[in-house]
C-alpha cells in the first residue's frame, strides 16, 4: 500500500476550483473518469486534467490517493459535495 505524504504537511489549506472539488468528491466515491464525465457533462479528458491538477496540488502520487491526501492536508472529508457558501468563499479568494 502506498503512503500518502503530502508535500506541505497537515493544516495547510488547498485552493481548489469548484470543478476540482466536484471531481474530488466523485474520485473519493470510486467513480471512473468516464462516470465522472457523464455526471458532470464534461469530457473524460477534462476529468483526467482535473485529476492531474489535484495530484499536483495535493502531492498525491496516484489518482486513488487523492482523497486521502486531501484529508491529510485539510482534515476535511473529501466525500462532501461543495455547497454554494464554499463557492462564494472560493470566488472571493
Low-confidence stretches: 1-9, 86-93
Mean pLDDT: 81
What is the N-to-C order of secondary-structure elements (H for helix, E for strand)?
HHHHH
How much helicity do the residues have?
55-70%
Biggest pleated sheet: none
Total DSSP helices: 5
The CATH C-level name is Mainly Alpha
CATH level 3 topology: Arc Repressor Mutant, subunit A
Quantity of strands, as a count: 0
In oligomeric terms, what are we looking at? single chain
The class by helix and strand makeup works out as mainly alpha
Categorize the overall geometry: globular
Through-space gap between termini: 36 Å
Explain this structure.
The chain is mainly α and 93 residues long. It has one domain: Arc Repressor Mutant, subunit A. It has five helices and no strands. The longest helix has 15 residues, at 44-58. The termini are far apart.
Keywords:
mainly alpha, Arc Repressor Mutant, subunit A, disordered C terminus
Itemize the secondary structure elements and their pairings:
Elements: H1 18-28, H2 33-40, H3 44-58, H4 66-74, H5 84-92
Task: Compose a concise summary of this entry.
The protein is mainly α and 93 residues long.
